């Protein structure tokens, strides 16, 4: 199984010549499966490009939370406009109410089309303790330390597993352990690594972590591949290449996520 990255940036989209290599779209990751159903994590600006590649089918969209960089592409996700599609949107009990958040996203005067008028059949699911089952894929949510609440997801299928936690800040002992437990033995860990150690002190409490902290989690959880994600808008291609080089000295199977790239697990 593979994860394909359509948006890797955090906080704000950053198109331009300095981000061409790694990409400037905000968070969106597709789980490629052998079946016909499509599984997507987060609806940042990267989901627009993903939608343009899709034919009519069954789509499952898992949202970690409702900050702009994770939902601002949803109004431009063209499969939502076709009656031929059936889209289930999931969130967790750890964030805001799902229906109210999506209606508010497209309320006047912010967008000319209302969420309720999409053509696709749309189901809304707020996950509790039970997992979501999509074919042979099981998706479980867990709480992440982030302002106003967020979750991460563990994906399991046919003995393989990956963890996606786009936004989290270290320093909460209980939730730090929740992440390690969720990532235990995963083939791939895609995790918020927005800051360098030098940047973090002036951004403490903003809800994001550092790449050395991500390495600590990967080691403790025994993951196979670590994918640094949710890149800061100020980090250009040169800086991200340097971070990857430095991180690999400590954890060789470290990758900096880039648009269009896939990771197998």
Describe the SSE topology.
Layout (H helix, E strand, L loop, with lengths): L1 E6 L20 E5 L5 E4 L4 H8 L4 E5 L5 H4 L14 E7 L5 H8 L15 E7 L4 E3 L2 E8 L5 E8 L2 E6 L7 H11 L4 E5 L18 H11 L3 E5 L7 H14 L3 E3 L5 E3 L1
Parallel strand pairs: 3-4, 4-5, 5-6, 10-11, 11-12, 12-13
Antiparallel strand pairs: 1-2, 1-14, 2-3, 7-8, 8-9, 9-10
Give the % helix.
10-25%
What is the CATH domain class? Alpha Beta
Fraction in beta strands: 25-35%
Radius of gyration: 17 Å
Overall strand count: 14
Spatial strand arrangement across the major sheet: 6-5-4-3-2-1-14
- Any idea what the CATH superfamily is called? Ribonuclease Z/Hydroxyacylglutathione hydrolase-like
* Intertermini distance: 6 Å
Global outline:
globular
Number of helices: 6
Describe the structure.
The protein has 265 residues and is of the alpha/beta class. The protein has a single domain, classed as Metallo-beta-lactamase, Chain A (4-Layer Sandwich). Helices cover 21% and strands 28% of the residues. The strands form 2 sheets. The protein has a 7-stranded mixed beta sheet with strand order 6-5-4-3-2-1-14. Helix 5 links the parallel strand 11 and strand 12. Helix 4 crosses helix 5. The protein is globular and about 50 Å long.
Overview features:
Metallo-beta-lactamase, Chain A; alpha/beta; single chain; about 260 residues
Tell me briefly what this model is.
21% of the residues lie in helices and 28% in strands. With 265 residues, the protein is an alpha/beta fold.
